[in-house]
Amino acid sequence: MITKKDVYIIKEQYCIRMGHFVIRKSDGSLDVNGDVYITDTQLEELPLRFGKIYGDFYCNSNKLTSLKNSPETVSGDFNCYNNNLTSLEYGPTVVGGFYSAQENKLTKLSGAPKNIDGNFNCFLNELTSLAGGPVIVNGSYYANNNNLISLEGSPDSVSGSFIVSANPIINLVGCPKEIGESFTFDNTTSLYMGKNSCKVKEVIIQLQESIPKTEKTLSQMVLNHQKQLPTVFKYMNTIFDDIFSPNGSLDEERLSDLILDIKEGLR
């Protein structure tokens, strides 16, 4: 069983800052009344085992390869960005604020909490899928600059923005059902989302530079009518057969007619 003296020695050794703590007799983990900062070290594993954190938990800018010994719950933000993590397993299952895991080597999101009260940041990783990630995000969801080819595994609901630009995503199948703010993706991504709808406030299509000539891009007509796309997405389950052929190709003439209806008052 770890002692308070042991904890103070480890705190000093790794320049750890944290609030008042209590050692659990059951497993030696620490419950901390306040924030915890374990940052800018060469650590590959957290040197103390944590239970409940009544504040923020920062373990960013280290060389962590695993979240082993992470807290079970964090009342505030959980920050593990800029490490060498390949998954979020062993991380907290409850986070009351932001969950920041960007700038790692994540190849999967398994281990992430199912509900995030703040933003969920997983950009600048090596993700090919969003499977195993959160189901509900009450902030924004940043998954840009990965290797995603599909949106399968996306959360059901994102209260803020859903950013998936700078990914080789083929189409919008699997996107969230509700996005409170903007939905940002690349002009190389098809509007095809199957017979599903997406309620979203704004659609932003990001123009990617240096696109190979063989790669398909959205037409200028679509780019010129981004303001009308939220209404198109809203009714996609009913208009799908009108604007997409059986092979999934977009009928731009029919889409153009629909956009005219939207401009004339369809909401």
Structure description:
This protein has helices spanning 4-13, 220-224, 229-234, 236-243, 252-263, and strands at residues 17-23, 30-37, 50-53, 57-58, 73-74, 78-79, 94-95, 99-100, 115-116, 120-121, 136-137, 141-142, 157-158, 162-163, 178-186, 199-206. It is α/β, with parallel strands linked by helices and 267 residues long. It has a single domain (4-217), classed as Leucine-rich repeat, LRR (right-handed beta-alpha superhelix), CATH 3.80.10. The chain has a 16-stranded mixed beta sheet that branches.
Care to give the gist of this entry?
With 267 residues, the protein is an alpha/beta fold. The chain has helices spanning 4-13, 220-224, 229-234, 236-243, 252-263; strands at residues 17-23, 30-37, 50-53, 57-58, 73-74, 78-79, 94-95, 99-100, 115-116, 120-121, 136-137, 141-142, 157-158, 162-163, 178-186, 199-206. It is elongated and about 75 Å long.
What percentage of residues falls in helices of 4 or more residues? 10-25%
Note the beta-strand portion.
15-25%
Distance between the termini: 63 Å
Residue-averaged pLDDT, rounded? 94
Relevant terms:
16-stranded mixed sheet, 267 residues, Leucine-rich repeat, LRR (right-handed beta-alpha superhelix), 16 strands, alpha/beta
List the helices and strands and how they pair.
Layout: H1 4-13, E1 17-23, E2 30-37, E3 50-53, E4 57-58, E5 73-74, E6 78-79, E7 94-95, E8 99-100, E9 115-116, E10 120-121, E11 136-137, E12 141-142, E13 157-158, E14 162-163, E15 178-186, E16 199-206, H2 220-224, H3 229-234, H4 236-243, H5 252-263
